[in-house]
Amino acid sequence: MTKVKRNVMTWQRRAAATVLVGLVGLVVAGCGGGNDDNGNADKQLSHTALVARANSLCRAATSGVTKVPPASSLEALADYASDVATISGRLHADLARLTPPARDRVTYNRYLEALATSNEQLSAMQRAAQDGDDGGVRTAVSKIVGADVGLAAANAGFGLCAAATPVS
């Protein structure tokens, strides 16, 4: 295995592990997005309902990410980052439609901000990988790790989001 291939696989695992903490899908049976049947945003949820919805979304996103083929080259990393960013972007959009109770708003918003930062860096990783810029990939991975998506999820009470790990 070449050094570049080994480095790409390491970056992929680190990025996936960090992003998965924040990724956690949208298409869970019976959960749906954050809208009612008329497409309107949900009314304020209780803490218990918010945690249940967020964890369901995280479970589905994690399932989606585990289906993304692993990258074995810098070029393949661009596709991987794009696919994971798409899943994570949908997760963020669905979570943003939920209305947390007042007591959860600060930690909930911090989680959404961390997830948004992670998503932005996945896009940066994709561009860097497409350009063959391994330094840019490393920078993006570092910023994803620095977003502390897992910690933000744990602080919000979203245990499944915080504990999500990639399956190799």
Task: Describe the overall structure.
Helices cover 68% and strands 0% of the residues. The protein has 168 residues and is mainly α. It has one domain. Helix 1 (3-22) runs antiparallel to helix 2, helix 1 (3-22) packs parallel to helix 3 and helix 1 runs antiparallel to helix 4 (105-130). The longest helix is centred in the last third of the chain and has 26 residues, at 105-130. The radius of gyration is 16 Å and the shape is elongated.
Element string (H = helix, E = strand): HHHHHHH
Helicity level: 55-70%
Question: Could you state the oligomeric state of the chains shown?
Answer: single chain
Number of helices: 7
Tally of strands: 0
Which word captures the global form? elongated
Beta content: under 5%
Output the radius of gyration.
Answer: 16 Å
The total domain count is: 1
Secondary-structure-derived class? mainly alpha
Instruction: Report the average pLDDT across residues.
Output: 80
Distance between the termini: 17 Å
Largest sheet: none
Low-pLDDT runs of 5+ residues are: 16-40
Features:
single chain; 7 helices; mainly alpha; elongated
Spell out the blueprint of helices and strands.
Blueprint (H helix, E strand, L loop, with lengths): L2 H20 L24 H20 L7 H23 L8 H26 L3 H13 L2 H8 L2 H5 L5
Helix pairs in contact: 1-2, 1-3, 1-4, 1-5, 2-3, 3-4, 4-5, 4-6
